[in-house]
Write a structure and sequence with these properties.
- Helix 1 packs across helix 3, helix 4 crosses helix 8 and helix 5 packs across helix 6.
- The chain folds into two domains: 265 residues, Nucleotidyltransferase, domain 5; 56 residues.
- It is of the alpha/beta class.
- The strands form three sheets. It has a six-stranded mixed beta sheet with strand order 1-14-13-10-11-12, with helices on both faces. Strands 9-5-2-3-4-15 form a six-stranded mixed beta sheet.
- It contains eight helices and 15 strands.
Length: 327
């Protein structure tokens, strides 16, 4: 297989028309930071209005009362200075709190009856859930060839996040899961050619503590998985190889689910990796064409001094926050 390396930071062109005027504020609550961004569109480009990163203090445990107060303060302080142009938020739940599975839906399952389909989905996954099924919020995303991507989140976690935004005086427009946010960033910034409409791509979003994987055919989500290997661990060859093994397993599972879907290229939707050589090693071991997709390089900044984002900070990953604002 021919392998090549291309830096998409230089070739990414802002897309037009995916958001009208100001988009909502995208809030990416991750394992170790909160990233907040709002995008807007004019006749020529997608523009970054404002964005902030708040690094989580090491002594605060995720999900604790102290963590909730810290997130509330981070959101309130960032959105009260007038740089954001609305109070409407599209939020995400941290990847480690989202359960994702993939199921086959029989063609005669009565797809028109939503209640029957939901019952079928629950039957197929309830024995796999890491929490009690009665306390879960479960949604499914129809995919190709009678497959579906199932998303489940514990209800008390959703309630906890809703309370955070209420206390920060923000209005929730919707909660958008991270696979959808990454797909939004891809199709808006890096999937704009006519040939991209039918191309199956693997999106790899390497954050500090985990790597999130999406396989999609443009807007059609086919597969998603979160892997507990992040940029902080990718300094040695053994860990890089472990990540490659996990990614190979994702490709293998995709092949077992879809006869008509074959991954054509790998896109790194982050700037979190320790260096470009790590990306090159991952792509080479996977024997896949690969590209870097830096979302920050794909937008114009309305006012660099007021936007709140420092382009000299290359280790900030904006893929999810931007995708949320594009929702």
């Amino acid at each position: 297989m021919v392998w090549f390396w291309k830096n998409w930071q230089r070739s990414a062109i802002p897309v037009l028309g995916h958001i009208a005027n100001n988009g909502p504020i995208g809030v990416d609550v991750g394992d170790d930071a909160v990233k907040i961004a709002q995008l807007a569109a004019n006749h020529k480009a997608v523009i970054l209005l404002a964005g902030y990163v708040h690094k989580q203090p090491r002594d605060i445990e995720n999900g604790s009362s102290a963590w909730q107060r810290w997130v509330i303060d981070a959101l309130a302080n960032s959105t009260s200075n007038g740089r954001f142009r609305s109070r409407e938020v599209v939020a995400s739940i941290p990847a480690n709190e989202v359960f994702i599975d993939h199921i086959k839906v029989p063609s005669d399952a009565g797809l028109a009856d939503e209640s029957k389909l939901q019952e079928l989905v629950l039957t197929k996954i309830k024995h796999k859930l890491p929490f009690e099924a009665p306390g879960a919020m479960i949604r499914h995303i129809p995919a190709e060839e009678n497959n579906a991507v199932v998303i489940a989140i514990e209800r008390k976690i959703v309630d906890r996040h809703l309370a955070i935004y209420e206390n920060a005086n923000l209005a929730i427009k919707s909660i958008c899961v991270w696979p959808t946010a990454l797909t939004n960033s891809y199709i808006s910034f890096f999937g704009r050619r006519k040939a991209d409409l039918d191309s199956v791509v693997m999106l790899l979003d390497i954050d500090s503590r985990r790597s999130n994987v999406v396989i999609c055919r443009h807007r059609s989500l086919l597969f998603a998985r979160s892997i507990s290997i992040g940029a902080e661990q990718l300094g040695d060859e053994q860990t890089v190889t472990r990540l490659v093994v996990e990614l190979t397993a994702c490709k293998r599972q995709l092949s077992s689910m879809y006869k008509k879907a074959q991954v054509e290229r790998l896109i790194f939707l982050s700037a979190q990796t320790p260096d470009r050589q790590v990306c090159a090693k991952i792509a080479k071991q996977l024997e896949m064409p690969a590209q870097i997709g830096d979302c920050l390089a794909a937008v114009q900044v309305a006012d660099p001094q007021k936007a709140g984002i420092d382009r000299r900070e290359p280790q900030v990953n904006w893929a999810t926050a931007f995708g949320l604002s594009l929702a």
